[in-house]
Write a structure and sequence with these properties.
By secondary structure, the protein is mostly helical. The protein has a domain at 15-40. It has helices spanning 2-8, 16-28.
Length: 40
């Protein structure tokens, strides 16, 4: 559901690679905190 919302607001002028990286960062959270997440 969050992925669909992110896709709808994506910057379509960016490359597919950049769009995927931005989406991954939004869904996974900041890199500094990923190791501490309880749901992963």
């Amino acid at each position: 559901m969050a992925g669909t919302a992110i896709n709808a607001m994506a910057d379509h002028s960016a490359s597919q690679f950049d769009q995927a990286a931005r989406k991954r960062d939004l869904l996974d959270g900041p890199e500094e905190f990923r190791a501490f997440r309880a749901d992963r």
